[in-house]
Specification:
It holds the Pfam family DUF1835. This is DUF1835 domain-containing protein. It comes from Paenibacillus xanthanilyticus. The protein is an alpha/beta fold. It folds into two domains: 193 residues, Rossmann fold (3-Layer(aba) Sandwich); 109 residues. 42% of the residues lie in helices and 13% in strands. The protein is built from 13 helices and nine strands. The strands form three sheets. The chain has a five-stranded mixed sheet, with helices on both faces. It has a two-stranded antiparallel sheet with strand order 6-7. Helix 4 links the parallel strand 3 and strand 4. Helix 2 packs across helix 3, helix 4 packs across helix 8 and helix 6 runs antiparallel to helix 7. The longest helix has 16 residues. The protein is globular and about 60 Å long.
Length: 322
C-alpha cells in the first residue's frame, strides 16, 4: 500500500502509526508561483524552480531533485495493491489533489486500487485545520475509512487542474458555477483562490486587504499577524512562507503599503532569524489610503504575481475581482 500525503508533519505521524504501507509526502506548493498543466516538462519546471528560489528561497536544485524523486515514486504505483490519497479541505491540499487526480486519470491502473480520504472535520476537534493536528492514535481510527476514487472524481480533478493552470480565470469561475459535488471541498477552496485576485475597488487581494485591516487597528509582530491572517483565511491553507512572500511585496518598492520596524529580514526557506519576532509591522499612509479605496494598489505600485497559470504584471491588468 502507498499513502500519498500532504506534508511532512502528517507523513511522520503516519509512519509512526500501525497503518500499513509506505508514505510518499507530496512536496509542492501549487498555491505559490507559476503552475503549469504539465509541471514535469523541463522548461516549465525550470521556470517554476527559478521563481520559487527568488520568491521564497527554495534552492532550484533541491526543488528539481524533490520533484523528480516524488515523480519516480508516483510512476511506480503499480507496485502497490492500493494507493491512498490523504488530503484536507483547504486550497493548499485541493490543488495537490486535483493534480494527482488528473495524473491518475491518464494512467492504466491495472490491478491497483485508487482510494481517497479527504476530511474537513474530526470528532472532538472543534477547529479542525488539518491532518497534522491528529495524534497517532487519532489518525489510526481513520484506517480503512478511505473510499474508492470514482470516475466522476477523476474527471472533476482533471477539469479543476486544467482550469487552475489556464492562463485566464474564466474557465475556473465557470467550472465552480457547475456541479462540483464529486469533490465536496473543491468549490470553497477554489473560490478562495479567486479571492486572491486584485479587487476592482483598490487592487488588493483578500489576504492583503485583511492584513491592512489588521494593521490599521494596531501594529503587530509578524508571528501574531501571520496567526491572525492565516486563521481568518484558513480555507487557503496558507503556510508561513507564502505569507512572508505576500508581506515582503507589501513592504517593497518606493511606495510600500506596510513598514517593518526591526533589523531581522523576513524569513524564507532557509529559516527564521532569531530576532524576527521582535520586528513590528505597521501600515503606511499609502496603505491606509489603498485600504479605504482612495487609491489603487496596482496603479500606484504595479503587480507581478502568479495566480495558478495566470500571470498579472504591470500597472494595468486584465483580470480583477469584482
Amino acid at each position: 500500500m502507498l499513502h500519498i500525503v500532504n506534508g511532512d508533519a502528517f507523513g511522520s505521524k503516519l509512519k509512526q502509526s500501525r497503518i500499513p504501507g509506505e508514505v510518499l509526502v507530496w512536496r509542492e506548493i501549487y498555491t505559490v508561483g507559476p503552475v503549469f498543466a504539465e509541471p514535469s516538462e523541463q522548461g516549465n519546471r525550470a521556470i517554476r524552480a527559478a521563481y520559487l528560489e527568488q520568491a521564497i528561497g527554495v534552492p532550484q536544485a533541491e526543488f528539481v531533485r524533490h520533484s523528480e524523486e516524488q515523480e519516480r515514486t508516483l510512476a511506480s504505483f503499480r507496485d502497490y495493491g492500493e494507493v491512498v490519497l490523504w488530503f484536507e479541505y483547504d486550497l493548499f491540499d485541493q490543488t495537490m489533489l486535483a493534480y494527482l487526480l488528473r495524473w491518475f486519470s491518464e494512467q492504466e491502473l491495472g490491478e491497483t486500487k485508487l482510494k481517497e480520504l479527504s476530511i474537513g472535520a474530526f470528532p472532538g476537534i472543534e477547529r479542525f485545520r488539518g491532518l497534522g493536528q491528529l495524534s497517532v492514535p487519532q489518525l489510526e481510527t481513520l484506517s480503512g475509512a478511505w473510499q474508492a476514487v470514482s470516475d466522476e472524481e477523476l474527471e472533476l480533478g482533471a477539469q479543476l487542474w486544467s482550469a487552475y493552470t489556464a492562463d485566464h480565470p474564466e474557465q475556473l469561475a465557470a467550472l465552480l458555477r457547475g456541479d462540483t459535488s464529486a469533490l465536496p471541498f473543491a468549490r470553497e477552496a477554489f473560490r478562495a483562490h479567486l479571492s486572491k485576485y486584485p479587487s476592482a475597488a483598490n487592487g488588493l487581494g483578500a489576504v492583503e486587504q485583511s492584513t491592512l485591516d489588521a494593521l490599521t487597528e494596531q501594529p503587530s509582530n509578524p508571528i501574531d499577524l501571520f496567526r491572525m491572517i492565516s486563521e481568518q483565511h484558513h480555507v487557503l491553507g496558507m503556510g508561513d512562507l507564502e505569507y512572508w512572500g505576500i508581506l515582503r511585496e507589501l513592504a517593497a518598492g518606493e511606495e510600500p503599503l506596510v513598514r517593518i520596524d526591526g533589523t531581522a529580514a523576513l524569513p524564507d526557506f532557509q529559516g527564521m532569524p532569531d530576532d524576527f519576532a521582535s520586528n513590528q509591522i505597521g501600515v503606511t499612509e499609502l496603505g491606509r489610503r489603498i485600504r479605504e479605496g482612495r487609491a489603487d494598489r496596482i496603479a500606484r505600485c504595479g503587480i507581478d504575481r502568479w495566480y495558478g497559470g495566470v500571470h498579472l504584471r504591470g500597472r494595468e491588468v486584465a483580470w480583477r475581482r469584482d
